[in-house]
Amino acid sequence: MRAGTSEYLLAPGKWKRFKIRHRDALLAAVILVPMIFFWLVVSGFPTLFGFLLGFFRWIGLADSPKFTGLDNFVRFFKEPMYTHALWRSIWLGGLVTAITLLSGFGAALLMNMPLRGKGVYRSIWYIPAITSTVATTQIFNLFLDTNNGVINNILKSLGKEPIVWQYSVGWGIFWIVVYSVWKGVGNAALLWLAGLQSVDHSLYEAAAVDGAGSYGKLRHVTIPGLKPIATYIVITSLIAAIQIYEQVLFITNGGPYGKTEVLVFRIYRDGFWDFNLGMAGASSLIMAIIVIVITVLYYGWSTSSDRKTTIPIKKGG
């Protein structure tokens, strides 16, 4: 009894020492545990449930799910509407990513120059990133209206025939790319700007001493110094671009005849229009795997290129 009593009396002191020793870990747990729980409830469990649906045949909410194994996945690769939507997501996402990153890099170079009113200039570039996609696409569509759109009114004033944008695959893709780049260039520019400002200025001074001009500094100092943040920007931008959805929904609605459908839009149609929950889950899982594979491949290529450009230092050299 005495031993048990003494251990009980020492327990508060041990707990106090434990709190002092692991204060940072306990503080991190207090902050992270509610966030992790919230993520699991709002996103984690629904995402896992959606992936599991891919192994079931479930059409309509009144129907009961039936386990079909890999049938939905086999159907995905057999039916052209899914493979075409997947391929369209990949090449369209790559095109949007390339244009957005190049445009953002050019804007970041301008932002990094000693200009007056830089804060206003940077804010203007970032406004599209924080505006509502629903609102801005509706304004965008006012310009593309067949009868009273701004662009068609200009064409009429020039004696040209108005263009029915919704019936043209080429123009539909064009406007989706234009809107996506306009929406994402501000965020890319600020990330590039953060990378530009992290490059050591002494390297520019050394390059100037060696006789390097503006192009030489950009090629031999700026671009190599941006490699770490470039990997992050490319991966995040590519993931976002491959998952383009709202632009397609509000600008072309997948038309004409499904020629501008992307995979996320196809998933939306399966899940909320046709209530084919099994195919929606299978498509979601396939897209998640493809995004992960692309990310891993690009990251591996980026890090391997960095290792090749690193010159090993020999001992005694």
Automatic annotation (TrEMBL):
PROSITE patterns (UniProt xref): ABC_TM1
GO terms classed as biological process: transmembrane transport
Source superkingdom: Bacteria
Main subcellular localisation: membrane
One CC-aspect GO term: plasma membrane
UniProt keyword list: Cell membrane, Membrane, Transmembrane, Transmembrane helix, Transport
Transmembrane helix among keywords: yes
Membrane topology: Multi-pass membrane protein
TM stretches of this protein: 26-59, 90-111, 123-144, 164-182, 229-245, 277-301
Any Pfam family hit: BPD_transp_1
Matching InterPro entries: ABC_transporter_permease, MetI-like, MetI-like_sf
Subcellular localization: Cell membrane
Domain (ABC transmembrane type-1): residue spans on this chain: 86-298
Signal peptide: none
Keyword Membrane in annotation: yes
Annotated family: Belongs to the binding-protein-dependent transport system permease family.
Protein's name in the database: Sugar ABC transporter permease
Organism: Cohnella xylanilytica
